[in-house]
Amino acid sequence: MNPITGNLPMLSPLVTDILAVSVLAAFVVAVAVWLIIAWRRTHYTLAQAPIFAFNYVMCRVLWRTVTSGRVRLPPGRGAVFVCNHRGPIDPAFIALTVDRPVSWLVAKEYCLNPFLAGMMRTVKAIPVGRTGVDTAATKLSIRCAEEGGLVGLFPEGRINATDALLLPGRPGAALIAIRAEVPVIPCYVKGSPYDGTPYGCLFMSATVHLTVGRPIDISEYYGRNSDRAALEELTKRFLKEIATLAGEENHQAELAGRFYKPGHGSSG
After folding, report:
1. What is the H or E stretch that residue 127 is in?
2. What percent of the chain stands above pLDDT 70?
3. Which of 77, 98, 153, 208 is the most buried (most CB within 10 A)?
4. Alpha helices in the chain (DSSP H)
């Protein structure tokens, strides 16, 4: 300090630049260490981590997602997620509640899209045909859940652009859960952005609320994957659980009229 003026001595431009760079470098290192520690606490691969980190930022900042409930499963325990379907990015919100990837059944054309194919493979999406029974997708989903993975399906089978709370359900989720002998986790999404196009919602702001229910124990149905009545009963139960999360406890669940053959798979 200058004894006459009482002012601190001025730092040279070189020293100032060195200090600024050092502070910036320390900040970058601190952020990198924090990210590595956070990643090591999850079950994402190194390739998956950036995708889910970006997803987290988008959900929290652009879509202002608020979650209620969290998935708690024993390590290595598989499960099937069922959720209402209001927009193309509904799976993004459910990713906030788990620390490992959920393999969602995704329309095959998106998995073959040159701009999306790599990401779909990385997040372990399961390609499924829109028409008919996709036996390959069903078998892959069952194997994934049996091996301790998480599988996600929309029982409605398509985006619900109507005023109805839920569309009629299809039995794919019930079939997979019974065959894999895993619990089913119901979820309800409200406020999902959707403008009628596959990608327009990526640029839309929104306020999304996601509610996650408790796992449904379906052990009493194990071995009944060829029982049409069991599949229908479970499908209605899943829809009712989703409706209950939406606050509609008296919802009358309906089944889709499309003919299907129990035991031969379903695209859900």
Report:
1. strand 126-128
2. 81
3. 153
4. 13-40, 48-57, 90-94, 108-112, 117-122, 135-146, 172-180, 228-245
Category of 69 on φ-ψ map: left (φ > 0), alpha (ψ -120 to 50) or beta: left
Where residue 28 falls (left for φ over 0; alpha for ψ -120 to 50; beta otherwise) is alpha
Whole-number Å distance between alpha carbons of 66 and 154: 20
CATH homologous superfamily of domain 44-245?
Glycerol-3-phosphate (1)-acyltransferase (3.40.1130.10)
Note whether 186 and 241 are within 8 A (CB): yes
Residue 208 pLDDT > 60 = yes
Secondary element (H or E) of residue 103: strand 102-107
How many helices (H) and strands (E) in the chain? 8, 7
β-pair partners for 82? 153, 186
| Spatial separation of the C-alpha atoms in residues 83 and 238, rounded to whole Å | 9
Cβ neighbours of residue 206 closer than 8 Å, sequence gap 6 or more: 62, 63, 64, 191, 192, 193
Which of 84-88, 232-236, 258-262 is the least confident region? Answer: 258-262
Which residues fall within 8 angstroms of residue 30, CB to CB, at 6 or more apart? none
CA angle centred on 225, ends 223 and 228, rounded to 5°: 130
Specify which residues 102 forms β-bridges with.
150
Residue-range domain boundaries for the chain: 1-41, 44-245
Tokens at 105, concatenated: 């059944």
Amino acid in the structure at residue 196: G
